[in-house]
Amino acid sequence: MSEHDITLKVNGRTYRGKASARMTLVDFLRDELRLTGTHTGCEHGVCGACSIIFEGQAIRSCLMFAVQADGASITTVEGLAEPGTLSVLQDCFWETHALQCGFCTPGMLIASQTLLDKNRLPTDEEIREAISGNLCRCTGYKQIVDAVKLAAQRLSGLNAPVKSDG
Question: In Å, what is the CA distance from 36 to each residue of 33, 43, 53, 140, 155?
Fold first, then answer.
């Protein structure tokens, strides 16, 4: 199978590499770039564990070939904060115990960050809608909604206690 040269800007850094025509973007990120924060789950675009921000939009990296991403700008979960630190959103996930086993966490963080980039003070319903494409088996989603709400409040300079609608 032939390999193609590709160049990607990932988390603000330019990477060059080779990918076969059928290599998925999630496999390229994990295997070639060693950015293993993006998880491989169902490999069918259902679970959301492989979500990344691609040109400003949350997408499933298991549904795209790496060669299709040539020249694109991508943010993975590793790019949400400086190395060795947590973003406000990541810290809020930790504080509200929205992590549990952690398998869905990268995709939940990406979906939530994409929402907060567009809407600084989302409602509970808007948060639920934003994360609805990401499956979690551990939390029941309440802690995740609370984490996003807390992050939204902190990013907006509000210090009110966080209580979800339900």
Answer: 8, 15, 15, 25, 27
Q: What is the pTM of this model?
A: 0.90
Neighbours of 25 (CB within 10 A): 27
**Which is it for the CA torsion 43, 48, 53, 58, positive or negative?**
positive
Q: How far is CA 93 from CA 8, 27, 54, 102, in A?
A: 29, 26, 22, 10
Summarize pLDDT for 136-145 with one digit per residue, the tens. Answer: 888 779 999 9
DSSP 11-73: TTEEEEEEEETT-BHHHIIIIIS--TTSPP-SSSSSS-TTEEEETTEEEEGGGSBGGGGTT-E
**Spatial distance between the Cα atoms of 125 and 4, rounded to a whole number of angstroms:** 43
Q: Max alpha carbon distance in the chain (Å)?
A: 57
Domains of the chain in sequence order? 3-80 (3.10.20.30), 88-155 (1.10.150.120)
Measure the CA–CA gap between 166 and 162, rounded to whole angstroms.
12
CA-atom Rg of the chain in angstroms: 16
Helix, strand or coil, per DSSP, at residue 74: strand
Tell me: the pLDDT tens digits for 57-93? 999 999 999 999 999 999 999 999 999 999 999 999 9
